[in-house]
Amino acid sequence: MTEPTVNPLRSGMRMQRTPEPCTMVIFGATGDLTHRKLVPGLYNLQRERLLPPGFSVIGFARRDWSDDYFRQTLVEDVQEFSRSGFEEPLWQSFAEGISYNRSSFDDPAGYQALAEKLNALDAERGTSGNRLFYLATGPESFTTIIQQLGAAGLRQSPGGGWTRIIIEKPFGRDMASARELDAEVHKVFDESQVYRIDHYLGKETVQNLLVFRFANGIFEPVWNRRYVDHVQITVAEAVGVEGRGNYYEQAGAIRDMVQNHLMQLLTLTAMEPPGFYEANSVRDEKVKVLRAMRPLAPDEVAKYTVRGQYTAGTQAGKPVPGYLEEAGVPAGAHAETYVAMQMFVENWRWAGVPFYLRTGKRLPKRASEIAIQFRSAPLMIFDQGPLNDIEPNVLTIKVQPDEGISLKFESKVPGQLTQIRPVTMDFRYNAAFGVESPEAYERLLLDAMLGDSTLFTRSDEVDASWSLITPILAGWQNAPPPEPYAAGSWGPRAADEFLARAGREWRRL
Amino acid sequence: MTQTTTLGQRQQIEIAAIEAELAALWRHAPGHDAPQLTRACVMTLVAPVLDQAAAQLAGAATLHLTDRFPNRTIVIDARPDDQEDVLDAWVQANCQMPAAGRAQVCCEQVTIDARGPAVERASGVVLPLLVPDVPVVLWWPSGDPQASPLFAQLSELADRVIVDSATFAQPEPQLRALLKDARAHKRVSDLAWARLTPWRELLAQFFDSAASAAQVHTISSVRVQYELPEAVLDRVQPLMLVGWLAAKLGWQPLGALLNRADAALSLRRPDGGSVEVMLVPQAVAAPAAARITAVELRTAIATYQVGCSSATNCATARVQPREGAAIQRVVRLEQLAVAELLAEDLRLFGRDRAYEATLRALAAISEPTA
Ligand SMILES: NC(=O)c1ccc[n+]([C@@H]2O[C@H](COP(=O)([O-])OP(=O)(O)OC[C@H]3O[C@@H](n4cnc5c(N)ncnc54)[C@H](OP(=O)(O)O)[C@@H]3O)[C@@H](O)[C@H]2O)c1
């Protein structure tokens, strides 16, 4: 590592530091992620003056595209998906730095050509040997690409620049495959070079969760088993499998959502305050939470998890097909499109507090939130009776769509009677800070270029997360198939019964 | 961007009843019970306006801010030279047109018309109207603040003060006085300084990489080209940029700065080398504020240039090494309206030490030394 250089003109400037000049190589450059998220995100960053001079992109994929054709396909997507306006001269200048390297992932010649292009860019555009590899491909290609990069001598840059690699999800499909992949990664790259992306961590409200908890003095004292009855984490999607049936059948909701996004939300909710806000301190605390969680034994799975699969139904008044009728879903498919489960965090703070997780596709609306439900008041001193149905306090952190925080509490209804009703106090992110939040990918791409891995998943975190998920997968092997639920409903009835057994109910979102 | 509308009628009311009328405004607001109407407040913004132009600026800016910084705005329309002695108040709510699926956000505005001697009493009316717990921002839209007693009174109440030195008739003494305010632990912001932010960013970016970092200490010439409206000597923007470079890089002025638009100046670097600064005015007809259009820094091994084109809202940043090909890129650089600059500035908290250091350097440059 070179000493970080101090730029005197930066001191006292309250803007983000721009990264050092670098080249980003996107593997899977003809794919959906590149066109919908990555390049529009990069364009926005460039527009906001956050990318360094000389920044370059090399697309790597198999299709027979020229540099020009590649740029042309990107223009349309930037116009469609970029959240800021499109400006021709800006795009022209940005596009000058974009090129395409046609090759199959397993062809060493393609990597030689890549290495030559990288060296040429270092000289022509001053990218100083700094490289960011982005694996925007299906997981089946990860190992091949990493091995080839190693073989081509691209694990480190010549002349002292940095080399980093961003790996998309999913990282493995169970404990064994995740470890195998990790071993392959570490044969070539040092952990400090590896950035495993989970775009949920790029979301503004998710980061705000840490600020909310640790920059305020009044919440932490009640953030524990003495005051919290239980926690509900919901990630609801309105969409179905959207033509990705083949992939989805291999993954199911647990791999697609729980192992990564829901686990992230859970660890951020449950973690202890880190010593300071820095990549390894934060991630150490997250790993501690995962390690404190009790894995379910395969025979407990029936008791603590519920699976569902959507059948035909209606959404927004329109009929929609069931999972089995979706394009790309093989006959006899059995993946769960809904999962609800209880998790246990067995440490001093949380012992005995259930964490309920649920996620599903084709639910009535898109909504992600974390709800902390507090214990009820210890004694009811007001007239009990039909007028007063006391509800517990709930603190809700809404992740999407209308980001914000709300607190539900009891209040007196004006009048002669002591009538009590719950009211909510709402903080809406966009009401207080009208500005639009940057896209999750923009934040994360910039962080990776700046070498800040706080919002990326570390190797031991992935491992700990799989150690909780793998026994559930094993338990499901011998369990009855997922229960059907109609598209447009809040999941299978069994999920309601599951919470009812504990005397609780799911929040209606 | 969302649009903003006025909710209900603007109503004239008794000074003593302002607070009660504000509450009533919300009770009678259409959709008051609907959860979709959110009233939010992150600050009290006090904007004294002394003429029609300032009043227009303030009007546009408060509507723009509704969207980004919901606030209670108190506009003081002050005409101290009027003959009558009048103090009137109006209240109104400004609401943002809701984006699909989002809550509608509204904020309230109080306008106080003060004529003649009543201007003296205006700050007393403002005091009880400040929203508890949230910061009070005094925005002085235009003109020399130090010339007005109203500014002195209101800045006592404020947690931060925002001015625009590009509108000062006598920038140099006014800026020296502001520097004193800043030392008194008040956050002072200047929209003229805020206009320089993208320029500072683009210039700083040239020296971010390890390879170019050392170059910044060897700059030997600075050329700042700026638009100058006819018949005025308004050098605040270019001088501020030079002041910033001098403050950050430790340059000391050698000799005095001539009182002319195309002034040249020599400074000494900490390593003893010298830096030649040139201001290059371009006459423009429109009486717009002076504005920078190009900056060039030279070192022994490269030339760094940023040039902007108002036609495209874009700037070109270019490095031309003495040997080898130039690297250049185009980035967005639009001229922000006052309302937008204000919103940008309100995002920042705390004292702006880079600005204070720049003001000190500026004082050193503009004060003739022996
Ligand atoms: N799409 C999203 O919105 C999204 C969101 C979050 C995460 N992700 C993750 O991002 C990754 C990529 O997703 P995607 O939807 O972009 O996939 P995709 O559209 O299927 O794209 C796959 C890319 O890989 C290339 N490719 C595949 N095999 C190749 C080979 N042997 N040699 C060379 N190139 C090869 C394809 O190139 P050719 O077409 O030229 O063969 C194509 O560019 C996945 O891991 C996914 O889980 C995607």
Largest sheet of chain B: 9 strands, mixed
Content-based structural category of chain A: alpha/beta
What is the count of structural domains of chain A? 2
- The counted number of beta strands of chain B is 17
The stretches of 5 or more residues of chain B where confidence is low (pLDDT under 50) are: 31-36
Shape of chain A: globular
The profile of the biggest β sheet of chain A is: 9 strands, mixed
Largest interface here, residues on each chain? A-B, 47 and 54 residues
Helix content of chain A: 25-40%
- Determine Rg of chain A (CA atoms, Å): 25 Å
Q: What sort of overall outline of chain B do the alpha carbons produce when their principal axes are compared? A: elongated
Q: Which structural class is indicated by helix and strand composition of chain B?
A: alpha/beta
Q: Please, how many helices of chain A?
A: 14
Overview in brief:
Chain A has helices spanning 32-47, 67-81, 88-95, 108-125, 142-151, 175-188, 204-214, 245-270, 279-292, 301-304, 429-432, 440-450, 459-477, 493-501; strands at residues 23-27, 56-61, 98-102, 131-135, 163-167, 194-196, 228-236, 305-311, 313-315, 318-320, 338-344, 354-360, 367-374, 394-400, 404-413, 419-428, 483-486. Chain A is α/β, with parallel strands linked by helices and 509 residues long. In chain A, the strands form three sheets. A nine-stranded mixed β-sheet of chain A has the order 16-15-14-13-7-12-11-8-17, sandwiched between helices. Chain A has a six-stranded parallel β-sheet with strand order 3-2-1-4-5-6, with helices on both faces. Chain A has a two-stranded antiparallel sheet with strand order 9-10.
